[in-house]
# Entry
Amino acid sequence: MTLLSYLLRRLVGFAAVLIGVSIITFGLSHLVPTDPAIVALGDHATDEQIDAFREKYGLNKPVPEQYWIYVTNLIQGDLGISLRTRRPVAADLHDFFPATFELSLTALVLSILIGIPAGVVSATARNRLPDHVVRLLSLIGGSVPIFWLGLILIGFFYGRLGWLPGGARIDKFIPPPPMVTGLFTVDSLLAGNYKAFWSSVHHLLLPALALGYFSTAIIARMMRSSMLEVLPQMYVLAARAKGLRQGKVVWRHAARNALIPAVTTIGVTFGSLLSGAVLTETIFSWPGLGRYATSSAINLDFPAVMGVTLLAALVYTATNLIVDVGYHWLDPRIRHD
Amino acid sequence: MTEVLAMPARPHRPAWRRSPLTVAGLALIVLLALIAVSAPLIAPADPLKQVLSTRLEPPSAEHWLGTDQLGRDVLSRMIYGARISLLIGTVVVGLAASLGTFVGLVAGYAGGWLDEVLMRLTDVFFAFPALILAMAISSALGPSLTNAMIAIAVVSWPVYARLVRAQVLSLREREYVEAARSLGASAGRIVWGHILPNTLAPLLVQASFDMGSAILSAAGLSFIGFGTQPPTAEWGVMISEGRNYIATQAWLSLFPGLAILFTVAAFNLIGDGLRDAFDPRLRGTG
# Structure
């Protein structure tokens, strides 16, 4: 199958999944046992206002027509009005997304930087101390409640030692950098404001460590198991036989090939990062989508909750698509299949 | 002449029993189940009883794990919390595995458009990050333990559907299924009597891992207010209630967190052990 036909097939699947996702979010917003018009406008709204609201969102129409209006609005970027912030949900998502993206991306980078070498070391030292340590830490990483880990990190590094801040994106006495990308670390560097940059990095460390531990554990396990499959292969033996140094054999020959299946795992862990962000952001008072979703859900602000759910599904599906296409492109065995 | 090699007799021991970690995981779960079942007998105090005069006491001979902000005995709340965590794991995995298995069997055996529709449906559920969808469902239904379990089951079933479908696709062409079909067995009998029993091994492995992740998800939902509600003694609720005291009275959150960690790790170890036992090629690679 050529890359183009594969890509087309996947894009059709992507569109089908998005339609399904919209049906589920639409169905969920109809599960709420309250009148959305009254919830949105409050108890003091006049009958005319309620009628106008129902007309605008098609609430007085048959369900299939309501779904059609919902999808048409979605395509135009209209996700409704947040009942809590009284702003368009799309505008809220636009404001809160960069914080979550910066946190998830940092967590993912940390997971890759720690997880891959840990998996390689673990496999090459199989059944010896480094392997046992990595396996134990991976077991803990796959089992620890992320919100609890966050609390313990705050209690120790902020409460006891006072080394790192326990919440927020930047020190309250340092003004945030002018918005370009929305990522404080990048924007502060672009503005040449190193004080803001270091403050952002300091604030990122604990939440990113808490959020990234789970994916680090998954990546390390995957990499270890992938390396154990690759190490006995003939080409690794050949590399050894021609007298290459152990480091070169492991990193240049074995690890590079073992990385291919790990790429898929990295894509899948992105979903866990988005889920984890809900909990991590709540603990670290991180002003991102997760905290926005939690506060919205507590206040029964359904347009906002559905907006976040929809965006998360979109990002997750798109990431998986990119990873799969990348995998298809990277591995010639699949490409020519 | 055919030479028959005499193999040395070796006592048969299931693969999972050869792994001390799997045995440790199993022992921990058995212990936890015993604690959960006998909670009213072994808990030193009523988990909901408030004694404000003894609030926030550190671990001592009287209160082994200390007391919380309302003077409740932390150990007793932990013991009762074990009941809820095991209940959540069992109910969620039971619901998700039943629904997923049914969908997987139908999709795999029927094939054609039905298979296509059901598999696209699983794709849609896979598109959501699990906790976000569970939170949305739980907030739509109203936060409670029951609704949290429904929400987690709703996000957990697709993995079973895919797993079982893949098994069915390979099993339905086997000779013994062909034989049953040629003998006139009905589709239901073939699926129920011949195919389903052979899908149980991978299902069991998945269920072990999912017990742990269901407990984690439910504790997470309770922590942010969408699962079990206070004052119920549940580990996620306990961590949430202790969060304001993390720097000064760390035990309030520390012990329930450790309980979740050990329980989930035990289920993961059992899952690893079962997977190795059912697929020896994977032994030691996980």
